[in-house]
Amino acid sequence: MRSNYFQILLALSFTVLINTFGYSQDLPTPVKAIKAITPETSFFNPTISVDSLAAKEITERAQDTILHDSVKHKKEFLTDIVKYSAKDYTSFNRAEQKLYLYNEAEVDYQDMNIKAGIIVIDYSKNEVYAGRIKDSTGTLVQKPVFTQAESVVEPDSIRFNFDTQKALIYNSKTEQSGFNILAPIVKKENDSVIYMARAKFTTSEDVDNPEYYFKASKIKFVPDKKIVVGPTHMVIADVPTPIAMPFGFFPLTDKQTSGIIIPSFGQDSDRGYFLQNGGYYFAMSDYADLTVLGDYYTNGSYGFNVESSYALKYKFSGKMSFRYESLIDSEKGFPDYSKSTIYNIRWSHSQDSKSNPNSSFSASVNLGSSSYYQTSVNSLNTGNYLNNTLSSSVAYSKSFTGSPQVNVSVAATHSQNTTTEVINMSLPNISGSVDRVYPFAPKTGTKSGIIDNINFQYSVDAENQIETTDSLFFKPQMFKDAEAGVQHTIPISTNFKLFNYLSLSTGTTFEENWTFKTINRYYDEDLDETVTETVNGFDAYRTYNFSASLGTTIYGMFDFKGEGKDPKIQAIRHVMRPSISYSLTPSFDQYYDTYEVISTDGTALETYSRFEESIYGAPNENFSSSVGFSLSNNLEAKIKDKDSTATEAKKITLINSLTFSTSYNFAGDSLQWSPLRISGGTSVFDSKMNINFGATLDPYALDNTNSKVDVYNINNNGSLFRLTSANLTLSYSLSNELFSGKSKEDDKGIQENLRGGGRDDDLFGVSQDFSNNSFFDDKEEDEDEKDKENDNKFYNYKIPWTLNLAYAVNYSNSARQNEISSHSLMFSGDVSLSPRWSVGASSGYDFKDMGFTYTQLRLERDLLSWKMNFSWVPFGTSKSWYFFIGIKSSILSDLKYDKRLQSDKSL
Q: Which structural domains are found in the chain, ordered by start?
C-alpha cells in the first residue's frame, strides 16, 4: 500500500483544527461599542451643592399642575393608514370588533401586504387572519400571499399581530436566496427571525413535487443572513436516504463572503488516495478576491494553487494564478522511483479602451514547466494536453497626440516550445514610431501625383533577446547569453496612377543597426579547428534597398441569363489582381572579413561577418536584383435563391484568393527562377466547410544525388515543373439547424483551453473541473422551450447535435522522397439524445502512423437541480476517467460526489 502515515496524520490533524476553529461562511458578529463614562452616568458622580441665591426662582406659572396632565395617553393600535379592499363585500361587525373582507381581499399596512380569499381584521386582539375560500366546486382557492419588505410567503392561512409583528403561518412556501422552503407551521417573531417546524428546503424549481429535499425537525431563518437547521436528513424522490447531519448552517448574503472550499477525493494509481482542490476563498473586497487551493496524495505528492480575480468597472479587469506541484512516482527503493516539480504561471489583464484613449496596458502570460500540461494531475489541463507551445506578452503603449503623432510602447514577450524545451524571451522590447509625414502634400484638397504622395516615417526598435532552456530559466547563465540591439528604420515612398488604370508605388528604406556584441573568427592550428570569440563593445552597420511595384485590378463577368432564360447559375464574376514588383539590394561586403583555413587540401579563405550572431543578423553580402510576379484570382457566382420570395440572386464564393507567385533574380549566376508557389481556398455548404490548399512547383531538375542543378526539369526529360510539396486542410463544422448550443464565449471549458494556450474548440478535448461550480451551465430555458418540451415527454423528434471535422494532409517530394509527411483527421461532436441527456467525443486518427490520437469521451445528464458528468480517456499515456454528481446551486455546491482514476503511467 502506497501510503505515508506521517502525512496522513498531519492531514487529519489539520482537518480537526479547521472544524474546531473555522467559522465557515458565517458573517462576523458586530462588536457593540462601549459608551464612554460621563459625569452624568458615572457611579461615583459626586453631589455638588449650589448656592440658593444662584438657583432660579420658580414662578407661579411653572407651579401650575394643569400644564402636565397626570393621565397617560393610551398608545394607538395602528400607527399608520390601513388600506383594504375586497371584490364581493366589506363588512364590519361592531359587536365582535371585526372587519370582514371577502373574495380577492387585500390589506396594505406600512411595508406589509396581504392578499387572500378572505381576510378578517380583529380590532379587539390587534390581529389579522387570512385564508382561502371555496369556489363553486368546493375547492379551496385564493391562497394567501403575505409580503413584508422583500420577504414573500404563500401559506394556506396566516395570523398576524399588528402590535407585536408576530405571525403564525400554516403550510407556507417561500423562496430565499435560491432555497425553496416548505413548512407546515411557521412562527414569525419579527422582520429578522423566523422559526419553522418539520420543514423541507430544496433548490428544485418544482416546489410541489421536488426531485429532492432536506427535511429538518426545526429551522431558524434570518432573512438575508443565514439559515440554521437542526437534525436533518436528505430525501430523494420521496425516499429517505442515510445521508444526514446533526445540524447545518447556510449563509444568505448578496455580498461576497469568505469560506472553506471542500476538497474532492479520489485515487491515483501512481500516487495513492488524494484530496484535491480543497482550500479557502478570501473575499478581500468588492474589486478583488483570492482563492487558495491545495492537493495532497498519500505517497507524499502535493500541490497548491493560488488564484485571484480583480476588476474595476470602466477601468480594467484581470485574473492571476500560480500552480505548483511536487510529484512523486513509485516509492523509494524501487528502480522507477522519481520526484519532479512542475509549475505554471498565468496572468491576463485587459484595459477598458474608454478609460484612457492615449495609453493602454495589456497582459497575457502563460509560462511554466515544459512538461506541465503533460504531467499535471489537474483535470483543468485536459484540453491542453496536446499543446506544445506556451507564449506570453505584457505590453504598455502610449500615444502623444500632435502632428505628427508619436507612439511609444514597452513590451516583454515569451515563447516556449514544450517539446524541445527551448525558451525565447524579449525582455524588454522598446519601440517608438512617428506617424507618416507628407512634406509636399497640399494644405487643402487631396493628394495627387508623385510629389504630393512622397512620405516618410521613422521607427526605432530596441530589444534584449534571451534564448535559454527549462533548466536555466531565471538562472544567472540565462542573462549572460542575452543579445541586445537597436534598429532604426526610415522608409520613404510614393505612389501615383499610371495611364489611369495602373497603380505604381516606389520607395527606399534605410536601416541602421546597433549591436553590443560581435564576433572574431580565426583558425587555430594547434587545435586544428575554427575558433569563434565574442567581442563585447558597441558596433553598427547601415543598409538600404530600393523597391517598386506595379499593379491593377481586372474584372470579368460571365452572364448566363438571356431572353427567356432563368438558369440556376445566373452569373460568374472573375476578379484578377496582377502585380509586378522589383527589388534591388546592394552588396554590403565591407562588413565581411576573411580568415585562412589550413587543411590537407591546402589553404582556403573563409568569409564571415562579425555581425553574424548579432540580434538582427548580418547585412546582405551578395548583390540582389530581382523581379517578382504575382497573380491573385477571386471567383464569385450568383445563383438562384431557393426562397421564391427573394428579390435578388444569392452570392457565393467559388474560389477565394487563388494566388500564383514566383520571382527571377537578375544578379544570380544560377537557379535564377524561384519555385512557383500556389495557394488558395474556398468554402462550400453555406460556408460550413472551409478548404485551403497549397503547392510548390520547382522548374529545376535534380541530379543523381537528389541535389538541385541549374537545368530546367523539362530539359531533363521531365515535366515543365516538379511538384516538391503540397498541402490540403479542410475544416467542417455543422449542427442541426434548430440546435442552440453553448457558444464559445459561454463555454467555461473552452475558455480554460484558451487561457492555457489551447484551441478554441473541443477537437483536442475540453478542460473540465465538474467540482468547480463555475463550470456549471446554469442557462435558463425560455418559457416557450419549456412548453414545447412539456407537450410531449415521451418522444422528442428533434435531436440536437454538433459535428466538427479537421482534415490535414501534407506531401513532400523535394528530394524524390515522394511521401505523405503527415495525414490526419480530427473530429469531435455532441449529441443530445433527450432534452437532458447528452454525449460527446473528441478524437482523431493518424493515417500515416495508423493509430488513434488523444481521445476523450463525455457524458452529461441534467438532473434538474442536480448535474451528473462523466469524462473518460480510454487509452494512451493520459488514460483516466472522472465521475461527478452534485447540486447545481452554488449555495449547496459542497454537496457532491466525485470520483476520478488517473492513468497508470508505469504501464
A: 82-237 (2.60.450.10), 678-777+795-901 (no CATH)
